[in-house]
Write a structure and sequence with these properties.
The protein is an alpha/beta fold. It has one domain: Ribokinase (UDP-N-acetylmuramoyl-L-alanine:D-glutamate ligase), CATH 3.40.1190. Helices cover 38% and strands 21% of the residues. It has eleven helices and 13 strands. A nine-stranded mixed beta sheet has the order 5-4-1-8-9-10-11-12-13, sandwiched between helices. Strands 3-2-6-7 form a four-stranded mixed beta sheet. Strand 12 and strand 13 form a beta hairpin. Helix 7 crosses helix 8. The longest helix is centred in the last third of the chain and has 16 residues. It starts with a helix and ends in a 7-residue tail after the last helix. 49% of the residues are buried. The model has no long low-confidence stretch (mean pLDDT 94).
């Protein structure tokens, strides 16, 4: 067995435990109703669970995996809404701490339309940024096979330091570390600080998923994003996935890379695709699908979510995914 095969086998062994600790925010998403309505023209809204890490957790749970969310929510009705929704989707909230005071849950007001789409996100005094070292130390890491975190966790303290503490604790228990870059400029004091922190996180993780803009940002040059992805695959990560929107994705390991396409769909909105991709990817790896097939299944999940209202409720079940794959003519590139 080659070194690459050995690394990949150990990584996949962790994932096949099918038990994931997901770090990051849960929030409330408000959608103008009916779909197609602009925020400013709305007369009514529907509410759903949102937040990148909560969405990933829901996606895993809908595929039959075990997902436990580690974060903080506000000790108010919106925080309780998030807790109720996590329970509804079968996501474990044992490690979700409610906090009082002026901290508030993330809130997104997002349109179900593609043309001139608007999503307005409220993150001032965000409750999830208050996750601290005590929160991550309270977790029994032996219950899990992998830890997943999104880049938003790293944007502020004490959440940032707590996340790096969680990386260290998870690694000591043999968990795989999975990083969704998920760069949101509005959450960061500066682009330079974000690039530095993301590079440190990337160097610690086994699977890294990001788009061409995010890897270019990490590289300090948007034309060198693929070079950055290749560097991470060569030096640290077992699997790096470089997403290119409609052009599909390039998956890289230490000594090989391959490109996959997308499953064209009639999009209702642009949001939720990345979270669905991550959930479908790791759930498929956990179910013993190969790396390439898992990437394609993640891509199919992304196509399904953008054609539906909401993010968490739009995440497909395993059965819905199988039906989609059976009926769809296939990805644009193999």
């Amino acid at each position: 067995m080659s070194l690459e095969q050995d690394i990949e086998a150990k990584l996949l062994e962790c994932l096949r435990r099918n038990a994931f600790l997901v770090i990051g925010r849960a929030g409330m998403d408000l959608y103008p109703d009916p779909p197609g309505t602009r925020n400013e023209d709305a007369k009514q809204f529907v509410a759903h669970l949102g937040g990148s890490s909560a969405n990933i957790s829901v996606a895993i749970a809908k595929h039959g995996g075990k997902a436990s969310l580690l974060t903080c929510v506000s000790d108010d009705s919106v925080g309780r809404f998030c807790l109720n929704q996590l329970a509804h989707y079968g996501v474990d909230s044992t490690h979700v701490r409610s906090i009082a005071g002026e901290f508030r849950n993330s809130l997104a007001v997002s349109e179900s339309r593609v043309e001139e789409h608007q999503t307005v996100i409220y993150r001032n005094g965000a409750a999830d940024f208050q996750m601290n070292g005590d929160d991550v130390k309270a977790v029994d890491y032996s219950r899990f096979g992998a830890l997943i975190t999104t880049g938003t966790v790293l944007a502020a303290e004490p959440s940032r330091s707590a996340a790096f503490d969680a990386f260290e604790l998870a690694r000591s228990f043999g968990l795989a570390l999975i990083f969704d870059v998920d760069y949101r400029p509005y959450s960061w004091p500066s682009a330079e600080e974000a690039a530095d922190v993301y590079s440190k996180a990337g160097a610690l993780c086994d699977i890294i998923v990001g788009n061409n803009v995010e890897f270019g940002f990490m590289a300090g040059d948007y034309d060198k994003g693929l070079d950055k992805a290749r560097e991470l695959a060569a030096n640290s990560a077992g699997i790096v996935i470089y997403k290119m929107g409609e052009k599909g994705a390039i998956t890289l390991t230490k000594d090989k890379e391959f490109q996959t396409g997308i499953y064209p769909a009639e999009a209702l909105k642009p949001t939720g695709a990345g979270d669905s991709f991550m959930g479908g990817l790791v759930a498929s790896l956990a179910a013993n699908y190969g790396v390439k097939e898992s990437v394609l299944r993640g891509s199919a999940c992304a196509s399904m979510v953008v054609s539906r209202v909401g993010c968490a409720p739009a995440m497909p079940t395993k059965e819905e995914l199988e039906t989609f794959l059976a009926e769809h003519p296939g990805p644009t590139t193999q």
